[in-house]
Amino acid sequence: MSKHEIKVGILGATGAVGQRFVQLLENHPWFRVTALAASERSAGRPYPEAAVWRLDTPIPEAAREMSVTLCEPGLDCDLVFSGLDSSVAGPIEAAFAAAGYAVVSNSKNHRMDDDVPLLVPEVNGDHCRIIDYQRKRRGYDRGFIATNPNCSTIGLTMALKPIADHFGIRQVAVTTMQALSGAGYPGVPSLEILDNVLPYIGEEEDKMERETLKLLGRFRDNRIEHSGIVVSAQCNRVHVQDGHMECVSVSLEKETDTKGLAEALRNHRGLPQELGLPFAPRHPVIVRDEPDRPQPRMDRDAENGMAVTVGRIRPCPVLDMKFVVLSHNTIRGAAGTAIMNAELLRTQGYLD
Amino acid sequence: MSKHEIKVGILGATGAVGQRFVQLLENHPWFRVTALAASERSAGRPYPEAAVWRLDTPIPEAAREMSVTLCEPGLDCDLVFSGLDSSVAGPIEAAFAAAGYAVVSNSKNHRMDDDVPLLVPEVNGDHCRIIDYQRKRRGYDRGFIATNPNCSTIGLTMALKPIADHFGIRQVAVTTMQALSGAGYPGVPSLEILDNVLPYIGEEEDKMERETLKLLGRFRDNRIEHSGIVVSAQCNRVHVQDGHMECVSVSLEKETDTKGLAEALRNHRGLPQELGLPFAPRHPVIVRDEPDRPQPRMDRDAENGMAVTVGRIRPCPVLDMKFVVLSHNTIRGAAGTAIMNAELLRTQGYLD
Amino acid sequence: MSKHEIKVGILGATGAVGQRFVQLLENHPWFRVTALAASERSAGRPYPEAAVWRLDTPIPEAAREMSVTLCEPGLDCDLVFSGLDSSVAGPIEAAFAAAGYAVVSNSKNHRMDDDVPLLVPEVNGDHCRIIDYQRKRRGYDRGFIATNPNCSTIGLTMALKPIADHFGIRQVAVTTMQALSGAGYPGVPSLEILDNVLPYIGEEEDKMERETLKLLGRFRDNRIEHSGIVVSAQCNRVHVQDGHMECVSVSLEKETDTKGLAEALRNHRGLPQELGLPFAPRHPVIVRDEPDRPQPRMDRDAENGMAVTVGRIRPCPVLDMKFVVLSHNTIRGAAGTAIMNAELLRTQGYLD
Amino acid sequence: MSKHEIKVGILGATGAVGQRFVQLLENHPWFRVTALAASERSAGRPYPEAAVWRLDTPIPEAAREMSVTLCEPGLDCDLVFSGLDSSVAGPIEAAFAAAGYAVVSNSKNHRMDDDVPLLVPEVNGDHCRIIDYQRKRRGYDRGFIATNPNCSTIGLTMALKPIADHFGIRQVAVTTMQALSGAGYPGVPSLEILDNVLPYIGEEEDKMERETLKLLGRFRDNRIEHSGIVVSAQCNRVHVQDGHMECVSVSLEKETDTKGLAEALRNHRGLPQELGLPFAPRHPVIVRDEPDRPQPRMDRDAENGMAVTVGRIRPCPVLDMKFVVLSHNTIRGAAGTAIMNAELLRTQGYLD
User: Fold this and answer.
1) At CA B229, angle to CA B223 and CA B230, rounded to 5?
2) Three-class secondary structure of residue B303 per DSSP
3) Which residues contact A320 (CB under 8 A, 6 or more apart)?
4) 3 state DSSP class of A65
């Protein structure tokens, strides 16, 4: 292990998100997984035994040799990624932060806390500075909590950010068609989704309508001012393994046309691209001109699943413009963004 | 055959819509199928041989014994249902009407003709009176052409009609998740839709945005005044066999709430219900209160596939109210509505 | 209620098999559901609340009004159908039989008991006479236990029986492709079966290899002599909702050809057909000549799901003949056969 | 281009198999694609325009710049891979061979020709020597035709070969569950396979029963003596994108047990492994011990899709042993094996 490597633990390492962390962190240039933590049922067991591995690449060699420990401070690492279930994530993450760990979480529990950054590096990387306030307020020394949004919100805000910057957004109406992996494992029973669509995902619409405002808000005077945009979300589960599709309509403050919107999206570069973060896609937003793209199976793996793909940009008779966004919900929409959040936080000195 | 029975021919009888006509007309109390017509390739062959039967009930006995004829006037019937492909439907339907046949068509060709009714009996049954003008203008004696809208438009307008009547509609934003049977046979290749969503259906958005205005328009002074509502549609193909889902948002002229909207939908009755038409569902719009309904597989067959199901009625932060509509796209959305159109036209004297 | 009607209870009424019992018994000419029993969690609650109804017809009116009771003797009925989970079925069913109830079970627990009939009416209806011995041996007065086989075994033996009768069977090699509903609810997670096949179903191969021998055995001298046939089963789960496909090869004692085998299957009639039992299909085995049938979606509902469909009959280069069998796994393969078992038992006087 | 590189053309480059060739040959150490040929309809057009690219990696850079030419000798290359449709492959391939091209084909047309090797390098690499006889007999100078078997036969024979070598095989009964990509594009309509299994694939059973014998035959005295093994195949299409599953039973000449069979399979190495061919998997047969493997989605990509996975090895009550084989049908089962065939032929001097 090089002296510049950072030791990393994964909370909830046996679950669906935890497995993605383990998979994506294999060979990471900065981070090395040194602890895999999960519930009591798994603790003490070899990782390959405790985790029912569901990804279609093999378990990384390193993880294959490790044993699972309990989710309690004392882990041999400086940074923990949390893929914990929201029923337990809240106090555990707080305990780790209080004990001096950097906590980068995919769980919803602390997302809307005033002093916790809800981060997508290309969207609002500067919000990470709220951590200074968080530490002061909570009396954390080296530790802190940073979060990423809900999967469907990440894809949406990746597309909205350049539009907001160039044209100003007033309203957003979004209808999602979300993949099964978003429900974790075992998740949706096959009998419910075969030859079917489920028009409801618990809390999802509320998350999209609220988290988007924090993400597109402004960091000022040690607080995050939420955006005044109005968002309406309708969320559906469809028969797709990975990749959330979102049909979006927006009303804008400044007029534009199909070409103008496409250019703003296509040219968007954010902090991760400037900083050359290891997980940064070259093009955070890929714009496709074909009439029938994006599609989950064809586009979800673009730039290793870290780019979102936008297509079908056209005028909207009711609002101003409409388009379709596709993002890989468990990479860009969860573990991948969390890892890039940690990369960003390191470059900003929060892991020192 | 009772003397009151009407002899019926089916144009395009071997295709997907044609097969539905054959299936649904078995045992119809008023109509008896006496002619099955299709392209040259099929003409002269026994129907069970010419049609690759794709429905999961057996071919009706009567049809089993019939031979396919060409799609030319001279068929032994008074009424023809047309499930012809739009590449050929236009002139064939006109020829039949000119030759004195009542033509009730599911094809798009004549839908937007000024003098042709675009009918959904519960929505705009009174528009059938434009046939008088059509006959005069085109010099038809007994014949005429009547059409039903595109499948996704039927489901949408069935839900919009009672809302428009009670509260007035200004804007409609709709995102569809449409079934594979809507693409006919062979239709969508399995490799394109397995683990996938297709965000594009040719012409579909345009049809929904335009046909809806004619359907919700007013019949006055021998013309149909199109409605001034603004409609924006985003259409997707999903991995479902039958049943189109539509996520709808509407802005209204008069304020209402979830309960008010639900009641207007639930209590809606139209001409078919008043007249007791054979294919009329008792409840044209079924409203479900469960958070996760409608679903294609659970709700598409409600009232033999002739009712649409609405659920998830709730306020929309961007427009006023939002909800989900589900309709069986090949029954209510095609052959079933066409048959009920013919029933309505008979009660109005157009088949005499 | 007519005085000839028999009062029926359903054990495990909220589960997947229990729901099928409730659905199929609606309007049964002989049986009337008067008790719905389930676990403590459900007891005392209205049935529509306790059962997450998963079938695509509505909950029968009668059941809609009933409350769930505990699975304990004392139910107001004479006959109970058991769809209990095998983890609890054993002692509960025995308790009911001891208390004087006729127990007709779909559970595996008592299937292989020496004194319990394992019944498929068309296959071995005469085995029901073992009940006399059962009553004597166990000291049951009016009560008894009768069972039906595992779903995949039912389809198989329905096809094997006429072959065994006409040609004698020595060996059977069968590979199944089984539907998701066979795993109950929630059953197989969608993430496990989307774009996948699972080559393993716990205990299934063993059940097919053993139960088949009892079914094809002979009732003699108050015992059931198991058949000496050798069976090898390979069981797979595929992405189908209902309908088990089975690719079968058999070696025979007497030579035959495709036509001979087809005729034996097509002409098969059993006790249910002779007796005119309410649930008896006219043709227990439907033989199709098309090269690509049977198919689950096209054939599972043949004769209300009570007929099995055989196709692709042809010589087998390794054994003698091969063919494909399709049966509806939750109707013919579970609740439907159980109900017909009860019908048979009534005609044989066991419900008096 | 290094002087050791071999120029390669692809016949049928726009089709499903052709696209796989283009994809897999990107960055091949020995072969460089210099010609893409297809039908008249495509000839003259840029490849990205002529081919509806269906694979989920982008079109290789090189191919992106190329134009499609006609399938006629004169292509600037020494070796052609043929993914031509069998309706045209026969004479075109012969014409190329006669004109001096090495033709390595995936098409069925010449597979069973006496003087054409039907090759899977791990199974019967030595059969390539029949090319000497072929050249002499047909008067080919430098050219020749070599073929690979049908997709399902490749997976089967990869597993049978080590068994035949160690224990001798007398009989094989195999039931397949084959992926949709095996039918090419557009292939199977989604409406036929959603919630369904198709128990028939044209000619497939015959191919498996016959090609297997040639593959497991012996090269002797300038001829290939077909094996005397008896094979019975039942072929089904299931709802899977890539990856053919096969449930196999074998009767053996020498007795063995689960462990013995597993070891023979696991330790198998063939010519490609000895020679270190670029496309050779380290382990041509991966044996898994879990009860529920192989599975298409989890195992098809093992060793870049070039290894087959065997699981569920256990005794068969009817024959001797049974197991399940999984292979990626468009990589190992088509283009990948063809490429490795060319690699083998190069090491044997046939491309000099």
Assistant:
1) 130
2) helix
3) A249, A250, A251, A252, A255, A256
4) helix
Residue B172 backbone phi and psi in degrees, to 5: -135, 125
Q: Cα distance from C326 to chain D (closest Cα, Å)?
A: 10
Torsion of CA D70, D71, D76, D77, to 10 degrees: 150
Structure confidence at residue C2 as a pLDDT band (50, 70, 90): low
Residue D2 has a pLDDT of 59
> How far apart, in whole angstroms, are the C-alpha atoms of residue B65 and residue B49?
11
Contact residues on chain D for B192, CB-CB shorter than 8 A: 54, 190
Chain A: nearest CA to B142, how far in angstroms? 41
- pLDDT at B275 > cutoff 70: yes
In chain C, residues 292-331 whose CB comes closer than 8 Å to chain D: 292-298, 311-312, 316-319, 322, 324
Report the alpha-carbon distance of residue A333 to residue B1 in Å, rounded: 64
The answer to whether D283 is a known catalytic residue is: no
**DSSP of D297-350, one letter per residue?**
HHHTTGGGGTSEEEEEEEE-SSSSEEEEEEE-TTIIIIIHHHHHHHHHHHHTTT
Query: Which of A19, A191, A239, A300 to probe by mutation at the C interface, max C CB count within 10 Å?
Result: A191
Residue type, D52: V
Please check the confidence at residue B330 and state whether its pLDDT lies above 80: yes
Query: Which helix H or strand E contains D208, and what residues bound it?
Result: helix D204-215
Interatomic CA distance for residues C300 and B94, integer angstroms: 42
Are D19 and D54 a contacting pair, CB within 8 Å? yes
Q: Which among B151, B166, B268, B328 is annotated as catalytic? A: B151
Query: Biggest alpha carbon distance in chain A?
Result: 60
Strand (E) positions, chain C? 6-11, 31-38, 68-70, 79-82, 102-105, 144-147, 169-178, 218-220, 223-225, 230-237, 244-252, 285-287, 308-315, 321-327
Q: Mutate which of C188, C236, C247, C298 to disrupt the D interface (most D C-beta within 10 Å)?
A: C247
- Kindly report the nearest CA distance between residue D16 and chain B, in angstroms: 11
* B56, B194, B297: residue with CB nearest C56: B297
- The string of pLDDT tens digits covering residues D213-232 is 999 999 998 899 999 999 99
Separation CA A239–CA B196 (nearest Å): 7
- Annotated active-site residue in B244, B268, B283, B328: B244
What pLDDT is recorded for position D3?
60
Kindly list the partner chains of chain B, i.e. chains with 3 or more CB atom pairs below 8 Å.
Answer: A, C, D
Instruction: Give me the pLDDT at residue B202, please.
Output: 96
Determine the residue among C53, C191, C193 to mutate to test chain A binding: the one whose Cβ has the most chain A Cβ atoms within 10 Å: C191
Question: Rounded to whole angstroms, how far apart are CA atoms B75 and B42?
Answer: 16
Q: pTM of the entire structure?
A: 0.96
Q: Tokens 């050779």 — which residue?
A: D280
**Chain D residues close to C252, C-beta within 8 Å:** none
Is residue D126 within 8 Å of residue D163, measured between CB atoms? no
- Is A4 designated active site? no
**Whose structure tokens read 């510049």?**
A4
Does B171 sit within 8 Å of A318, measured CB to CB? yes
Of the candidates D162, D160, D156, D237, which has an alpha carbon nearest to the alpha carbon of residue D196?
D237
Q: Which of A181, A194, A241 sits opposite C241 (nearest CB)?
A: A194
Show Cβ contacts of residue A310 under 8 Å, excluding neighbours closer than 6 positions.
Answer: A159, A262, A265, A285, A286, A287, A288, A294, A323, A324, A325, A326
**Do B180 and D186 count as a contact with CB atoms less than 8 A apart?**
no
Task: Read off the pLDDT of each residue in D99-115 and give the average, rounded to a whole number.
Answer: 97
pLDDT above 70: percentage of residues in chain B = 99
3-class DSSP state of D292 = coil
B140, B73 contact by CB (below 8 A):
no
For chain A, strand residue ranges (E) read 6-11, 31-38, 68-70, 79-82, 102-105, 144-147, 169-178, 218-220, 223-225, 230-237, 244-252, 285-287, 308-315, 321-327
DSSP character at residue D118: B
